[in-house]
Design a protein that fits this description.
Elements lengths: L2 E4 L2 E4 L13 E11 L10 E4 L27 H10 L2 H7 L7 E2 L8 E5 L7 E6 L6 E8 L7 E12 L3 E8 L6 E8 L6 E8 L10 E8 L4 E11 L8 H10 L3 E4 L22 E3 L4 E3 L5 H11 L2 E5 L7 H14 L7 E4 L17 H15 L4 E4 L8 H7 L9 E9 L10 H9 L1 H17 L9 E10 L13 H16 L6 E5 L7 E4 L2 E4 L1 H10 L5 E7 L3 E4 L9 E5 L1 E7 L5 E8 L6 E8 L5 E7 L19 E4 L2 E2 L2 E6 L3 E8 L2
Parallel strand pairs: 3-31, 4-15, 4-23, 15-18, 18-19, 19-20, 20-21, 21-22, 22-23
Antiparallel strand pairs: 1-2, 3-26, 5-8, 6-7, 7-14, 8-13, 9-12, 9-14, 10-11, 10-13, 16-17, 24-25, 26-29, 27-28, 29-30, 30-36, 31-35, 32-33, 32-36, 34-35
Length: 673
Amino acid sequence: MKSVVSSGLVLSLFWAASLVAEEKRSATIKIDANQQSGFTIPRTIFGTFLEPIGNSTYNGLWAEILQNPSFEEGLWSAPQAAKMLLDEPSLNTASRLGLPLPWEPLDEHLGNRYEPRWGDAANSNRSLEIIGVPGHATGIKQKVFLPVHRELQYQGSFYAKHLSGANRIEISLRLRSQPDQALVTTEIRAQEQTWTKYDFALSLPASKLSPLEAADFALAVDGDERVLVDQVSLMPRDAVDGLDPDMVRLAKEMKTPLVRFGGNFTSAYHWRDGVGDREKRVSMLNIAWGIPEYNTFGTDEFLRFCDLIGAQPQIALNLGSGTPEEAADWVRYVDRHWKQHGGLTWELGNELWGNWNLGSPTLDQLPERTLQFSKAVRAADPQALLIATGQDPDHFAKWNAAQLTLPPGTFDYMATHFVVRTDQLEGPQAGADAVLAANFALPVELGRRLHLMHDQINQIPGYGDKVRIAFTEWLFHGGDSGATVPQFSNMGGAVMVGGFLDMLLQNAFAVPISDMTGIIEFAGIWKKRGRVYGTPSYYAFRMYSTADVDRTVASTNDGGTYNVEHGVTRLPKIEAVPNLDTVAALNRSGDRMTIFVVNRRRDLDVTGNIEINGFAAIEGKAQVLSASNSNIANDEERPESVVPVESNVRLQGDRVQFVFPRASVSRIELRRR
C-alpha cells in the first residue's frame, strides 16, 4: 500500500491522517480563568441509561441468583436458546426430560421424573411436578455463581403443592455437577395440598467454595413424593431491597444525576406488568432482546434504585404498542411514588425511526403520535419535561423536521443517539494506529453535528432556545466480530468517553441532558461469575461526573491536530482533531479549577506545560487513567487492571507541568484560597 510520511509518522492513505502541527513531545496549555463561558454546566449531562438487556437487570442489578424461577417456556428466543445450549451442552439432556431452561436434573441417571403443569401454578402459567424415587435424591438443579467474596449467607423461598407420598423437600448448594457433594443443606416439610410459600436460609461454610467457582442450587425429594413446585428464589442476605449491593455501591460512586429507564424494550413494555405483588408478576418474553422479562424489577424497584444512588428517574414511554392513556397513568403512578411528586423528565418513545421497535410509526404518523402522547402526559403532569424522539447526529434532518412541525410547547427536548460500531471503517483494512485515530476523533465531529441539529431547531419560529437536545444514548462498541478495537470495555473506549464528555462540557448550552449507555453493562458496571466490576469507561466517566464544575473557561493548546478520511463509516471524514483535548472549568464558588486532558496520541506521552491566568492555586491533585496499551480491559478475574491513579500536582507559581501518558484521560484539580 502506498503511504505518506507526515511529521515523522508513517500513516496509511487508507485514512489519510496528517498532523497540522509538527510532532512534539511537549505542549503548552493556556488557561484563562477570566474568560468564562456564558452558560453553566448542568449536572444532567452526566446521566446514565438502564435497560433490561443482557444481564443488566436480571442476573445483574437485581440480586436474584436463579433464572426462570417459575419454570416457564418460551422465555428465550431461538438464537438466545441456541447460544445457551451451545455454552451448556448438559441443558440438551435437561430439555429432553421436560425441564425448562436453564434447569437440569439433579441426577440424570434417574430418568424422566418431571412433568410441566400448565394452568396450575403459583406464578405465571406453569409449575413443575417432581416424581420421587424412594431411596434416591430426585430433583432439579441450576448452575449458579455466588458472591462468596463478600457474603456466605443466602435466603430464599419456593412455592409447593403436595400431591402424594412423603413431604420432605431438601434445598442445598452443591459442588457443580457433583450431586453427592452438598456444601450446605436445609430440610423443609412441605405438606400443604394447596399452593404454599416456604422460606429457607442457607449458611455456606467458609472456604468451601472459591470466588468465581460455579455451584449448583438444588431442590430435591428422597422418598416417594409427588410434589408441584413453582417460583423458586435465592438471594444473598446482603441484598439491598432486592438489589446487588456491589452494583448499588459502584453506581452511587458515579454520582450520576439521572438514570434513563428505556431502550428498545420500551416499545413493548406495559408498566402495570411490573407493579404489585412481586411474586405474582408474570414472566414473559422481552421481545426486543429475546430474553426473559420476569417483571420482578419494575417501576418501584427502579425508583428505589434511583433513590439509593441519589439520581432522578428519566423514563421512556411506550409509543409502540402503548396508548396515551397508559402513558398518562404511568406518569401519575410515578408522581405518587417518587419523592418529587411531579416535574420529572419523560421520553416520548425510543428510536421510533427504527423498525426493530415494535409498532414504529412512519414519518407521516410520527408528529400526530408524538402530539397525542404529549397532550396526555401534560394533562397528567403539567410540569413534566418531555423529550421527543429525534434522529442520530449523522442523519437527523428529515426526521427532526417532521417533529418540528408540531406546535411549540409540545416537547422540551429532542432526543438523539449515537451507538456506533468501532470496527466498521471505510476502505481497505487499516492498521491499529489508524483505527485508534479514527475512533478517537468521533467526539470531535459529533460536536460539530450537534451544532447543526441545534441550528435546525432554532430556525423554527417559537422554538428558539426553548427546545434543546437530549443525548439519551451514546456508546462505542466493537461489534460481534471479536476485533481488537477501541470500545466500551477497554482503555481505548475510555479515551473515547473522555473525549465525548469534553465535547459535552463545551456544548452543554445546546445539550443539557445526556445518558451514557449504560450504568449497568456496556460502558458501566458488570457482574460476571458473581463478581462486580467497572469498565475503564466507567472510571473515565466517574472522573468527570464527580468533578466540581460549574462553568468552563478559555483553554487552548499547541499540541497539534490531525485529519481523518475514510474512517469509521458513520463519520468517515473528520478534520482538525486535537491531539490534546483540553477543557478547564471552575466550580460555582470559584475556588476550585478542574482541568480535563485527553491525550489522543497513540505513540507519545506528552509533557503539558500549563499556564494559568486569573487563578492562583495553592495545591493540586491529579487522577490519570491509562494502560500499557488501548486493548487492556477489566474483567471478573482482573477487576482493577485499569483504574485511575492519583497523585499530587507540583505547582510553580501560575504554572503546572504534568506528563499526560499516551492514549489517556487525566483530571487535574487545583484549589485556591
